[in-house]
Amino acid sequence: MKTKRIFILNGHPGEKSLSRFFAETYAAAAMDAGHLVRLCHIHDLEFDSDFGFGGYQQVKPLEPALETVLEDIEWSEHVVLTTPMWWGGLPAKLKGLIDRAFLPGRTFDTHNTRFGLPAPMLAGRSARVIMTADTPGWFMRWVYKNAMLIQVRRQILGFVGIKPSRFSYFASASHPREGMVERWAEQIKRIAAVAS
């Protein structure tokens, strides 16, 4: 098995969360399997999550925390994101990180287009998204049409070239049945061992 460089971002803004537990579970299992791991908790990052402008003519200088996240993504071969689904989308701080850090010239190239779309600059990396929610999986698929999964896979990760992206979806996360978190953790350990 090939050793991979893995960057794990826990996108839950709380100090303690199921997303943090899953990120740390993945990190430990990946390191046990011989992979190189960098782990980041968005709770610990200090940055202004408001992009603040209407276009890319002006951008705020990136805070050191955002520069480090970008450097870790650039270093990685596999990106792991743990996140809850809140109100059908990403937590505001995580979305703010993407708004601020995924900029032209760094993650996509507006001077090199194909079919009107900028060229991705983070190609060559795969991803695993570990998502928690209270929405049942069948409801997510049939009623919400997997909208958040499509947004993260195509409009965020795929747009900058991070693909393929695979998803692990765990519900009902707020009130799991007895033993369910442990079973979910075992699934995460298995995917971490092979860095998928």
From TrEMBL:
Signal peptide: none annotated. Gene3D superfamilies: 3.40.50.360. It comes from the Bacteria. GO terms for molecular function: NAD(P)H dehydrogenase (quinone) activity. Residues 4-184 form the Flavodoxin-like fold domain. GO terms for cellular component: cytosol. This is Putative NADPH-quinone reductase (Modulator of drug activity B).
